[in-house]
Amino acid sequence: MLAGSAFAVGTKVSFQDEERFFETKVRPLLVNNCYECHSEDIAEAGLRLDSRQSVLKGSDTGAVVELGDIQKSKIITVIKASGELAMPPDGKLTAGEIKILEEWVARGLPWSGVGSKETPISNGSDSIPERIASTKKNHWSFQPIRRHELPVLPEDLPVHLREKWSSNRIDRFLAGTMLKQGIQPAEEASPHALIRRLSYDLTGLPPSVDDVEAFVANPSEPAYRAYAERLLDSTQHAEHWARHWLDLARYADTIGYAFGGQSNKSPFAWTYRDWVVKAFHDDVPYNRFVTLQVAADRITPEVPRKDLAALGFLTVGRTFRGNIHDIIDDRIDLVTRGLMGLSVACARCHDHKYEPIGIDDYYALHGIFASTETPEELPIIGEPPQTEEASEFAEKMAELAMNLADHERAIYDRAIREAVAHAPDYLIEVARPSEKKDGRLPQMQDGYEMRPIILGRLERLLRNKSDTHPILGPWVHLSNVPDDVFSSDADKILKQCVESVPNLNTCVEQELISAKPHSISDLAAVYGRLIAKVALDENDEAKSLIQQSEDLHSLWLVFGKAGTPFVVLENEWKSVSKRSERDEHSKRKRRVLAHQADARGGPPRAMVLVDKSKPTESFVFLRGSPGRQGEKIDRRVPHILGGEFVDKRTSGRLDLAEMIVDPKNPLTARIFVNWVWTHHFGQGLIATPGDIGLRGEPPSHPELLDDLASRFVNDGKWSVRCLHREIIFSQAWRQASTAKQDTVASDPENMYYSRSRRRRLSWESWRDSLLMAAGTLQLNEGGGPGMDPLDPRNGARRTLYSWVDRQDVPGVLRAFDIANPDTTVHVRSTTLVPQQGLVMLNSPLVIDAAKKVADRLSDESNTQARIEQLWKIVFARSPQRDEIRMVQAWIEKSEDLSSDDFGVWPQLAQALMSTAEFQYVD
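Above: the chain sequence. Below: its structure as tokens.
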């Protein structure tokens, strides 16, 4: 348990979120900045900061923290250096670090692991190998998944319930448990409630009035199954369940905070979203679904290029202002907690405080993702549209690409000219190295800065060269002559040097005899002129002369060929560029990327990862600091999951994916089956859907969970649609949301599934329902870049296709519990707050929908007919007599008071869409 967590009204922060915040943000900060003076060994001023109790106790002068109050907390005042006392004494914390501690105090000083009340400071905990052995032996989620014998239903169960609850394995398990508790299941929901629940559960959309009336008239089993199959086969079903998955994949269309003038857009995140929709529509087996998202580029034979979009799973997260280690940490958390319900990221700084995960396990996974990179050019995964916009896009794209290439060429040409012009300076620096300040190379009087890549190649060229080399021999010989000797007896030394080099290059010999150098500076100038002859071959005549002369060609091979010291390769232009040139290049590159992402008519691209040319192993970061490296860890999967090493020739992502979906892995099927179950029932067989490790809750029905997971893998062959069918065809799922009073008293939390759970529509389903009522939603308007869901002009598209800005989530979406796009969310929290009612009263989205609903009503002369039509539009049912009478009376009183812009019928439509019947599913 986390001690002292404080939450804002209407919000629900999970234990895992608080634990992750403390372990990845707060504890490393305290360890690196505070423990040297305020821990068990030293407690200056009587203050210890290595346990929650110690922090609350304070120092010799009193309390240092006021829970939840930043202004009154002395610890914040001290670290801000806003008083007489300032800490740490040897340097102020950064603004980001101060913000972390402020948030820590505001949250109520959450603390997990060592130093919390439940886990006092101690070094006597079991070792990781001992924890692994104990976990494999005792913890339920690490036991093999197996089928179970069905319970026998008791004889005293009413006949009609026995018939309905005997055929489905889910029902047998649930009914057996209920009856042991003396609880009888609820009756089946009414036909109207059932078909509405089925439609929202599978598609996130309300059923049409025709479908409702047809089913209510014939609520038979064949009719129910036929309607369910139609929904399962629909694109709308895939879209709805894709939205659930995108919560888990922490999907957004932006990268978070941008820096260095970069755009904050994830330009082709939408191709990942559309791929997920297609995968659910095609019922891609879950093991293949996961493998593609982790390692689509490593699968053999190669997957169709459209499937590369699956790698958006790893790449649509935050970029943490370019901090690669935070990016890797996010990906580790995604694949371990997201796909297996196992917390690994808390082992970034130390062995996990609870789970059988060592810090070596973390850095073994770290190496896998450190061996990948995002390519500069994202791959095209489809054809551009065959429209006039496509040709305009291609024309502009060619222009922007040419501007970028021209800029790179201009940088390259300028760098070569300047390098050749300063060749004598480079030669002197090699022969007589200057004293370097801060390790920087010297800057010339004209402002030119030496480039490490050029100097390094020149040093390697001259290293161990003989003084008889036909081109470099004179330099090697003469540069080693002391300066005073060289200047005093230059002619004699030069003559001896020329005569001592057999086969001396004629160009070199002529230049030396002509110049008669008397110092190393003169000698460097000689070689500078030689280099200029062959390195600046900018015209055809110069190139022809070099090819025709054997001596010039030999000189060219040493100093003029691409890849020689002063003529870097064209793709190395960045290493010889100036800051201003790089800034301009970034601007031009952003124009290219912006055009690719935003302009209509371009081909879709995939946000992918690729393996680096040379995979790498990661070192343990001591206390989580990249600057303090410990032991090197070979890439592998965690020991608790087998510890197998990955392919040394690749990053190992494919090996990781195969381990995740291996039927022998007891975590993956359990966590996914519970995920699907939770979205169907509104509550999970496991109450902690993202955590089935040692800190997670055990399942309420372990035999049912295992039986369902086993058959999902073995019988259903990982088919998600088969799993859907088994659940929605069960009697347990079809129960009414109301139950007898004694049943509610015996099962107040519905732990035994003795009735259905009434649920509020998600934000997406709620908006889509408004648009369905308004008559604007077009179900074939899917795919492509995201749109603003609050703009009434976008009323034709489903909410799934919204633009998601992780830095600017609109208040309306937050009020309706949209998932946090910064982290893996298996199941959204649900709140009931006044802001939701205020949205229904004031939101332009609702007002616009109400007006459009009113516009759909016909026959203005017949009030009752309009009322009946309105009820069918909003509720897909006819109004009851008392409802008609009540509305007619209200209309008579209100007609004179209503405005022309928002009359009684829009007001009535708004009122109906604000009711619980519209916003909730029974």
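Residues 388-421 form the longest helix (34 residues).
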